[in-house]
Amino acid sequence: MTQDPIPAPPFARKEHKEITLHGVTRFDDYAWLRDKENPDVYAYLEAENAYAEAVTAPLAGLREQLYNEMLSHIKQTDITVPFRDGAWWYYTRTEEGRQYAIHCRARGPQPAQGDSEQIVLDGNQLAEGHAFFAIGATDISDDGRWLAYTTDTTGFRQYTLRVKDLETGETLAGEVERVGSVAWAADNRSLFYTVEDEEQKRQYQLWRHALGTPHEQDALVYQDDDERFNVGVGRTRDGKYLVLESASHITTESCVLAADNPLGEFSIIAPREEEHEYSVDHRHGFWFIRTNDRGRNFRLVTAPVAAPGREHWAELIPHRDAVMLEDIDLFAGFFVACEREDGLPRLRIWRFDGDGPKAAQTAEIGFPEPTYDTHPYVNRIFDAATFRYSYQSLVTPSSVFEYDIAAAESTLLKQLEIPGGFDRTLYASERIHATAPDGVQVPISLVYRKDKREPGRNPLYVYGYGSYGYSLPLGFGSNRLSLLDRGVVMAYAHIRGGGDLGKPWHDAGKMLLKRNTFTDFIAAAEHLVAAGCGDPRRVAMEGGSAGGLLMGAVANMRPDLFCAVVSHVPFVDVINTMLDSSLPLTVPEYEEWGDPNQESYFKVMMSYSPYDNLKAQSYPAMLVRTSLHDSQVMYWEPAKYVAKLRTLKTDHHLLLLVTNMKAGHGGASGRYDYLKEIAFDYAFLLNELDAAS
C-alpha cells in the first residue's frame, strides 16, 4: 500500500467540547469546523486540498491518461430520442467542448436543423459566470408557449423560479427563490409552485401565480406545518387534475384539483394516517391508487372520482410478499406496473376492458441478462398505443425501446454509442449471493472483463449504499471501462436498508436494525474474497452520502478487509447531526435513522456512528470527498471525521480530504469537470490496488 511520502497537513486545532446525553459523555474536538464564516475553516479546507494535490502529484500522468480514456468513450456531440408532448417533439443534445446540455424542440419527430430548431433552454448560456449550474424543475404549459423552470448556481440545491415565453424567447421579469416543484393549470395562465422554508430546506408551501401579475400578488394555497413533511405538485398524465402531495418518509397525503379550475379548492383523496403511503393518478373518472394499506410492498386499487374514500377502494392488483409494486404508468388503454421481484425490476402490461377500471395483465416485457436496470422512458401522451422504456445493464449501454401494446413487441429506438473501441462481448455480469450473519441471502451483482479474470488474483472493488429504500441501479457506465480493462472486478452489494427486495428489505436495515446494513456489506466482501472474485490483499470499497456512512462504519468495524476506501460526501457525524433539529433534513430523517433524544435509538446510533467510533488502529488508505455548499451532508461532517482520524490512526496509509469549494452534494456540475473528479478517484484507487498499469 502507498504510504505518505510527505508529512500530513497540520492537524486541525482542537477545541474541547463535551456533550452528555443518556448518561454517555462524548467529546467533540472539531465542532469549530462548523463555522462556515470563519476564515480558519477555509484555510483548513484549502490546506487539505493542497496536501491532497501534492501527495498525489506522482499520479498526475495517470489522472490525465484516465481522463482521456474516459473522454474517448463518450460521444461528445450527441442527441437523445425525441419524445412528443402536445404539438412538439422535445429532445436534448450535447456539443463537443461544452459542459452542459441544450434542451430543444421541433414540430416533427426528427431533430430539426438550423433555424427550424427551437432552443428551449441552453445550459451553457445560463451557466455563464457560474462555477456551478443545475436545472431543477421544468414544466411547459399545455399550449406549448410558457416554460416554468428553476436553476441553482451554488450547489446548495436552492432553486430560483423563472418563466420564459417560448414564442418570443423572452424570460419574464420577476422570479421566486427556494422553489421546488412546478405545474401549470389547464388555462395556460395559472402556475402552481412549492417553496421551501429558510431553515430546514423543507418544501412546505404551495403558491399560485397568474401570468402578467407580480409575484407579490401570488396566492398561498396550502401550507404544511408538520416538520416531517415535504409538499410537491404535479399533473396526472391525462392532464385532468393537479395533484398536491405531502409526504414524509413513511406517510403521504394527496389532494387533487381539476386542472381547468385553478381557483378552486383541493380535495383530499385519503386523510393522512401514520405509516400509510399512497400515490394517485386518474383515468376516465376513476382514481388509480397505489397504497401500502394492506402490506409493505403496496397494492393497486381504484375508486370513483366522486367517492375517493377508502371505503370505496376496489382492488386491482393485490399485495404480494415477494413483489414490490414500485409505480404504475397509466394510459387511456393500458397501464404498466413497474415492479421489483427477486431484486430485479419488471415491467408488466395491463390492458383495460373498456372505459371502466377493469383490466387484466396481458404481457411482461422480457429482459435477457442476469442483472440489469429498466424503467419507463418519457411517455407524455395519454392516448398512446406504445410505451417507451429504458434498458441497460452493467455491460449493455443505455438503450431506449418502444413497446407496441397490440403486437406485444419491442423496437430499439437508440442505444448509446460508446466510441473508443468498446466491445461488449469482452465483458460479463453475474448475480451471486452472500450469507449474512443472521442467515439472510444478500444479492451481489458482478461485472468484469472476461479475458482479465484470474480467480483469487484480481483487484476487487465493492460498492454499496443501503438506505432510504433506494434500489441500487445497475446501469452501464463507460467510465467503468478504465477499471475493468485493468482487470478490476467490480461488485455491487444489494444490502439491507435499500429497496432491492422491496420495503421489508428497507425495514430490515433502518432505525434500530441499521447495523444489518454494515454487516451485510462485510459479509458480501468476505464472500467475494472466499469465492475467488478478488485478491484478499487488494480490495477497495466505495460509497457516497448514506453510502459514505456505510464506508465509515465498515472501516471502523473491519479495516483489515480493505486496502482502500473512496467516500463521497459521507454522513459520518450521525449523533451530532441528528441531535441538531435546526439543520436541513434532520427532523424528517428521524423516520429513517431514529431520534437520538430517545435512548434506544441513541444506543444503536452510538454503536455505528463513524465519527464517534474512530479509534487507535490501522485504517485503509482513504479518499474522502465533500463540497462546501452541500445542503444534505454538511461539509463539516467529513472535515471533522478526517481531522479526528488523523490523530488516531496508527498506519501510514494515505488519508485525503478533497473539498470542492464551489459545488454541492453531487460534486462538479459540468460534464468535463465531473470527469476530472472521477479521474482523480480512479487514479487513487488503481494506485492503492496496484493495478495502475
Mean pLDDT comes to 96
Level of helix content? 10-25%
Determine the N-to-C terminus distance.
16 Å
Strand order of the largest sheet: 32-33-35-34-36-37-38-39
Descriptive overview:
With 693 residues, this protein is α+β, with helices and mostly antiparallel strands. The chain has a domain at 130-276: Methylamine Dehydrogenase, Chain H (7 Propeller), CATH 2.130.10. The chain contains 13 helices and 39 strands. The strands form 9 sheets. It has an 8-stranded mixed β-sheet, sandwiched between helices. A hairpin with an 8-residue loop joins strand 18 and strand 19 (267-268). The longest helix has 18 residues, at 671-688. The radius of gyration is 26 Å and the shape is globular. The two termini are 16 Å apart. The model has no long low-confidence stretch (mean pLDDT 96).
Relevant terms:
single chain; 693 residues; alpha+beta; Methylamine Dehydrogenase, Chain H; eight-stranded mixed sheet; five-stranded antiparallel sheet; globular
Q: Helices and strands in order, then pairings?
A:
Blueprint: E1 18-21, E2 24-27, H1 39-55, H2 60-72, E3 78-79, E4 83-85, E5 88-94, E6 102-106, E7 118-122, H3 123-126, E8 134-140, E9 146-152, E10 160-165, E11 176-177, E12 179-184, E13 190-196, E14 203-210, E15 219-223, E16 230-235, E17 241-247, E18 252-258, E19 267-268, E20 278-283, E21 286-291, E22 299-304, E23 314-317, E24 323-330, E25 334-341, E26 344-352, E27 359-365, E28 372-376, E29 386-393, E30 399-404, E31 409-415, E32 427-435, E33 441-449, E34 460-463, H4 481-484, E35 489-493, H5 503-507, H6 515-530, E36 539-544, H7 546-557, E37 564-568, H8 574-578, H9 586-593, H10 599-608, H11 610-613, E38 621-627, H12 636-648, E39 655-660, H13 671-688
Parallel strand pairs: 34-35, 34-36, 36-37, 37-38, 38-39
Antiparallel strand pairs: 1-2, 3-5, 4-5, 5-6, 6-7, 8-9, 9-10, 10-11, 12-13, 13-14, 14-15, 16-17, 17-18, 18-19, 20-21, 21-22, 22-23, 24-25, 25-26, 26-27, 28-29, 29-30, 30-31, 32-33, 33-35
